[in-house]
Amino acid sequence: MSFSFRRDLITRPIFAWAHKALPPMSDTEREALEAGDVWWDADLFTGNPDWSKLLAFAPATLTEEEKAFLSGPVEELCAMIDDWKVNWEWRDLPPEVWEFIKRNKFLGMIIPKEFGGLGFSPYAHSEVVRKISSRSVTAAVTVMVPNSLGPGELLMTFGTKEQQNKWLPGLAEGREIPCFGLTSPEAGSDAASMIDTGIICKGTFNGKETLGLRLNWHKRYITLGPVATLLGLAFKAYDPDHLIGKEEELGITVALIPTDLPGVSIGHRHLPAMQVFQNGPNWGKDVFIPMDFIIGGQERIGQGWKMLMTALAAGRGISLPSQSSAGAAYCARATGAYARIREQFHVPIGKFEGIEEPLARIAGIAYQLDAARRLTCSALNQHIHPAVISGIMKLHATERLRITVDDAMDIHGGKAVIDGPQNYMGNLYRSVPVAITVEGANILTRNLIVFGQGSVRAHPYLLQEMNAISDADPKKGLADFDTSFWKHVGHALTNTFRAWGRSWTGGMFAPAPDAGAATGYYRQLSRYSAAFALCSDMALLTLGGALKRKEMLSARFGDILSELYLLSAALKRWEDEGRQEADFAALEWVMANGIRTIENRLAEVMANMPNRFVAVILKFLIQPLGANPLGPSDKVVHRCAQLILAPGAVRDRLTEGLYHIDDDGPLARLERAFLLVTANESIEKKMHAAKIRDWSEAVKKGVITADEGTKLKAAHDAVALVIEVDDFAPEALSPIYRKQPDLKQTSPDRAAS
């Protein structure tokens, strides 16, 4: 290699410094980083996103067959479920529901038709989970788990043709019930620390001596585990006798284990936060399997972590975001209706400003989560598996679901606190911690993964530099580093001036498409993308590998990246839906709330960056007058809250795709009362003007007609039915009274009488 002044005299010492500054990547870390794809997150990391690219992404759509499934079997399934009985009487889905799920191939939605599955798109999968979630968390989890991280997904992507032919038809038709064993007592978020083992050895299988693995494991929190017939298992493979090569420690491996094999033990059920989907532990003691039980065969030994991360990149973008989106929309529909029909001080509670604020938050989050769900599904439909975005979606969808459910509970008050068949909020509230915890705990995802993985994968040059540093050939590594490093320098300098100019002008001249009333929001995101890219580069430059340990700093960067994606999704939805003017209040709320978060996180990053000189420079460039964290104005809050306080197309768009017609169930009664109350609003105004509360008196005095009085009575009766709550006889709640019927429970009021 000929002499190069720049490479040999300038880059070489930087290359040597980078070797020391960046810690070596473990195989597990490298596999996690290489799993999945980058997508719109890469544009956001450039500091200059190409909005035409975002707007050109084809919206996710359904085929006629998928639409028919949603309006047919999915509706039928929802109608079969009594969620109170499922959770508090049966503690399971009844046998006829299980049979219906299997017969209609709900467990094989993603399996191709050639193997007997439905061959549905990721968006169809998402829509099915969304609708079922609005009826029953238990049913939704039962359906979604086999279609996300599990044997089916792994077999389709990594399985041999023989394995696919053997197992996929049974999974598609429900003859095989799958689960996946990853979490163990020793390994939760740090799955790489599992101690479950597979020792390569010779053994007897079906009467023949064969090369295989002897497995020992203990797994817990395994959804569908108690009823599974086919267990996907993650373990660490070892070859102490060198039967297949020179290495002894071969790494994480995944295999298929029929649960009827000798040595497999299926434990009793867990009860996760009073949710009754099937979940429990399992064990294996000296379970022997042949090599062809490894997913992908012997050549896939040690590749399990990358396989799992690839599957998660798709699954985390669908299942829990769909459930969370459904939950937020459900809260919007139910809480808006309840706030309209419930009165205090003779005024609907939804008209109080103190209630408008959480109502607006519920409506705004419902709009944003469904926008992000749809945008993510559009990538998945195009066979893109955006790893970082899937992490963002799981984290923020479940966290924002928690916010909306808490707000909905507060507004409903006692109606949502008193449990019983008439309570349509309680079980959703109890289910939230499960969503927060599973598929990667949110604390870990926020503090380590979103920015930690995103900064490497989505950054235009960092991964190239890291690969150059770790290259086994030092000369080639230096040459590659020289190329990528100086491109990185040019990129950083450009972003410095870009961020400075856009920040000092308030984004006035930042690039944006012609998007009508939303054009200014694109300019703001262009401004904040540049600020984010600049701050990220400065943090990486000054901290190097130490940034990995600065979890709070990493979390703040992750929050900014997440907001940029979620706000992009909201703008994309606004455009895809034809710029619905009536919905603009939701977009206004979303953008103002997200910009407030970005402003705060940027200020926090600069206040806590260890290199204070760099922090001062960044503050001068990006926030010379300090953060501007105003958030939605009172007028925006008022307009956004109104979107769910009245029936109509806006409310229906916000809550599209839910199942809410449940015969004479609590939600159907709420919807009827809501429609009656809003239809009779003009009659109520006449009575209010006459200062009369009783409809019969108003009829007598001629304030309203007899027909209007009848309508008003029907509305009042419907409201009274909705605000009722359940009570139970003592023996219905406590075995004490069932065992000793002579014991009496007397209330103070009855005792006094």
Automatic annotation (TrEMBL):
Q: Which GO terms describe its cellular component?
A: cytoplasm
> Can you give the residue ranges of the Acyl-CoA dehydrogenase/oxidase N-terminal domain?
75-174
Q: Which reaction does it catalyse?
A: a long-chain 2,3-saturated fatty acyl-CoA + oxidized [electron-transfer flavoprotein] + H(+) = a long-chain (2E)-enoyl-CoA + reduced [electron-transfer flavoprotein]; a medium-chain 2,3-saturated fatty acyl-CoA + oxidized [electron-transfer flavoprotein] + H(+) = a medium-chain (2E)-enoyl-CoA + reduced [electron-transfer flavoprotein]
Keywords, in A-Z order: FAD, Flavoprotein, Oxidoreductase
Query: What domain of life does the UniProt record list for this protein's source?
Result: Bacteria
The enzyme's E.C. designation: 1.3.8.7, 1.3.8.8
* Entries under InterPro entries matching the protein: Acyl-CoA_dehydrogenase (IPR050741), Acyl-CoA_Oxase/DH_mid-dom_sf (IPR046373), AcylCo_DH-like_C (IPR036250), AcylCo_DH/oxidase_C (IPR009075), AcylCoA_DH/ox_N (IPR013786), AcylCoA_DH/ox_N_sf (IPR037069), AcylCoA_DH/oxidase_NM_dom_sf (IPR009100), FadE_C (IPR015396)
Q: Which regions form coiled coils?
A: none
Where is each Acyl-CoA dehydrogenase/oxidase C-terminal domain found?
302-449
Q: Which GO terms describe its biological process?
A: fatty acid beta-oxidation using acyl-CoA dehydrogenase
Question: Taking every annotated instance into account, which residue ranges of this chain make up the domain Acyl-CoA dehydrogenase C-terminal bacterial-type?
Answer: 456-728
Q: Which cofactor does it need?
A: FAD
List the pathway annotation: Lipid metabolism; fatty acid beta-oxidation
Keyword check for NAD: no
Care to name a GO molecular-function term for this sequence?
Answer: flavin adenine dinucleotide binding
Q: Which SUPFAM superfamilies match?
A: Acyl-CoA dehydrogenase C-terminal domain-like, Acyl-CoA dehydrogenase NM domain-like
The entry's family comment says:
Belongs to the acyl-CoA dehydrogenase family.
* Protein name per the record: Acyl-coenzyme A dehydrogenase
Annotated organism of origin: Afipia massiliensis
- Lineage, highest ranks first: Bacteria, Pseudomonadati, Pseudomonadota, Alphaproteobacteria, Hyphomicrobiales
